[in-house]
């Protein structure tokens, strides 16, 4: 039986170096690989290109890497909720590539499936399309987008087994599944790690073939980015 487990986050991130391109799962603060991000901070790697829906908040998530000036470029679809991100972008310290959210997801999925490029109507006629090939399909112009190329993908799942099979929970599923297998090495951290064969095959979202390393994370904060409550009557 294939065993993809590693002992801890330190082993999981072996090989990460400055200048690499990293995919990081999550949406806002939901489903972010907290342990992997904390280890990246400890490693003090620099000049990173990060592919993620957004950059967390100032003091959590990818915002921690921004604080340490470890990120050279962010490829994202949303950049709100982070004052340091805004400051670095406007000052020219941080290179930012903003792309439509669906295109971001599809560029990950294309890399996962081994598809080098695809055409999409999203972004045509805007700055997003500048310098890109345009073709018409069914009377509608589409722009050519290329699959991402990343060295590592860091994802977070609710439960996984030693063979790397993953189950996500609720909205924490977000960008995590399409980033699995979309990089040279996919690292999955899970809240619960069980022996291979204990997961119901019908409940598995991502098969272990897309995962290279898996470990059980710890001390998850699971912060709420925007807490919204109903006013008292």
Automatic annotation (TrEMBL):
This protein's UniProt keywords: Transferase
Enzyme class: transferase
Pfam families reported in the protein's UniProt record: CoA_trans
Top-level lineage group: Bacteria
Signal peptide: none
EC number, as in UniProt: 2.8.3.5
GO MF, one example: succinyl-CoA:3-oxo-acid CoA-transferase activity
Protein name: Succinyl-CoA
């Amino acid at each position: 039986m294939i065993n993809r487990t590693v002992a801890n986050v330190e082993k999981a991130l072996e090989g990460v170096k400055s200048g690499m391109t990293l995919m990081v799962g999550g949406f806002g603060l939901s489903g972010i690989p907290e342990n992997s991000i904390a280890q990246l901070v400890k490693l003090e790697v620099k000049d990173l290109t990060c592919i993620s829906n957004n950059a967390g908040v100032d003091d959590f998530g990818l915002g921690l890497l921004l604080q340490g000036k470890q990120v050279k470029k962010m490829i994202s679809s949303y950049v709100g909720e982070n004052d340091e991100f805004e400051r670095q972008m406007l000052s020219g310290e941080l290179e930012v590539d903003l792309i439509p959210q669906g295109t971001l997801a599809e560029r990950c999925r294309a890399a996962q499936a081994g598809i080098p490029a695809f055409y999409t109507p999203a972004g045509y006629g805007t700055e997003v399309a500048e310098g890109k090939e345009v073709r018409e399909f069914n009377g509608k112009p589409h722009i050519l987008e290329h699959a991402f190329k990343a060295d590592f993908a860091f994802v977070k799942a609710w439960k996984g087994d030693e063979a790397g099979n993953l189950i996500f929970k609720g909205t924490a599923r977000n960008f995590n599944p399409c980033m699995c297998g979309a990089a040279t090495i996919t690292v999955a951290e899970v809240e619960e790690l069980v022996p291979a064969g204990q997961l119901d095959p019908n409940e598995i979202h991502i098969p272990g073939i897309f995962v290279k390393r898996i470990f059980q994370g710890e001390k998850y904060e699971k912060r709420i980015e925007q807490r919204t409550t109903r006013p008292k009557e």
